[in-house]
Each structure stands twice: as structure tokens, then as C-alpha cells.
Design goal:
4% strand, 3-stranded antiparallel beta sheet, mainly alpha, 206 residues
Length: 206
């Protein structure tokens, strides 16, 4: 195995432009407190450190089944990479959209955003003060709030509706809407994940 092949996989978050490699966070506030990590335990979408293989949460049997089934369907970044933890986090995003009476397209925008930002991991760190599924900065809310997947999704939709009042986002492409909310330096990345996000939302929508 040569040097390149032996290098660990990396995660790139589009909004923050932070590169994570070898389990090292090149910029960020560090791990959250134990209380923050426990917050998502019931849903299975607990906060995880950037280099963590698992989580303090306990995904349900339904999340395990969803991950297994979705791994056969996804084609982009999450292909063969969905864990029960990822499925639990995706389900939190979808549930938040339904609770807010948002449609599947809105849920797809949110899921595509979390795929780009964190590959559906509820990270306790990120670039500067960014944390959580959406890598939201501290002006969004407290660490506890941003690490709560449901709360973070609500905050994402609040920003979406501020940028696109009165449902005006529905006339735009879903990838463009995600970019306009996140204001990433890499705007095309959201569009690339829309198809897989639609598959995930269709699978989890109830």
C-alpha cells in the first residue's frame, strides 16, 4: 500500500472550508461537554467528536434497518456509508420538517445540506465556532441548541424562510436554496447531493 492509499478518509465541510484528516481537527472549538454529548441520546443522534467512530447515542433498531436499506440505494457521498447513527440524524431532520409542516422538498434541502456539511454526523466541533449537523456558527444559538438535531433543523428552516419569505424558495432549484442559506464558498456541492437526499427523505417520510 502506498502513502496515498494509507491516508485516512477526510471530511470536508463546505460552509466552513475546514479539512479534517487523520482524526485531527485543523480548526475548531474542540469537544463538547459530557452534558452536550448526552443530549441526543434518546434519538440516537448524539454529538460526536470529529474523529469518533461512534456516538454516545443509541440508535434504534429502526435506524439500523434504515441504514442497511439506504446503503443499497445511495449513489453519492453517502453510498455504502450510512450508519445507524447517520440514519437517526437524518430521521431527526425529516421529523423536524414534518413537525413544521414543511414539504418533502424542504426536507430534501435540509438533508442535502447536512450531507455536505458533516455527512450526517452531529459533530461537536468544526471551523472556528461551527458545530452540529449543519455546522452552524454561534450566532445561531448555544452549543446545546445547535447539537440538538431537531432544534438545529428548525434554525435552518428559520434562515431559509428569512432568505426566501412566503415560500418563494419553491421556485428555485433545491441546491441553490441550500447554498443561499449556508453561503458556502463551494456552492455546487449541495446540488450534487440532492438525489441522495431525496432517496433518504422518501425512505424516512411518514
Amino acid at each position: 500500500m502506498n502513502f496515498i492509499e494509507s491516508m485516512p478518509k477526510f471530511v470536508f465541510t463546505a460552509t466552513s472550508s475546514v479539512l479534517l484528516t487523520g482524526g485531527l481537527l485543523l480548526a475548531g472549538p474542540g469537544a463538547a461537554s459530557a452534558d452536550e454529548k448526552e443530549e441526543g441520546t434518546d434519538s440516537g443522534c448524539a454529538g460526536v467528536e470529529m474523529n469518533a467512530d461512534g456516538s454516545s447515542g443509541a440508535p434504534s433498531e429502526e435506524a439500523e434497518k434504515a441504514a442497511e436499506e439506504l446503503n443499497d440505494k445511495l449513489k453519492q457521498d453517502m453510498a455504502d456509508s450510512m450508519s445507524p447513527q447517520n440514519a437517526a440524524c437524518a430521521n431527526e431532520v425529516v421529523q423536524a420538517a414534518q413537525d413544521r409542516d414543511m414539504n418533502k422538498e424542504a426536507a430534501t434541502i435540509a438533508v442535502a445540506t447536512t450531507i455536505v456539511e458533516t455527512h450526517l454526523n452531529n459533530y461537536t466541533g468544526g471551523d472556528r465556532d461551527s458545530i452540529g449537523l449543519f455546522q452552524q456558527r454561534d450566532h445561531y444559538g448555544s452549543s446545546d441548541e445547535r447539537l440538538d438535531a431537531g432544534w438545529a433543523t428548525e434554525a435552518f428552516f428559520d434562515e431559509l424562510e428569512a432568505v426566501y419569505p412566503d415560500g418563494s424558495w419553491e421556485s428555485e432549484s433545491l441546491g441553490k436554496v441550500a447554498q443561499d442559506v449556508q453561503r458556502s464558498a463551494y456552492p455546487d456541492r449541495y446540488h450534487d447531493q440532492i438525489d441522495d437526499a431525496e432517496v433518504i427523505v422518501d425512505h424516512l417520510w411518514s
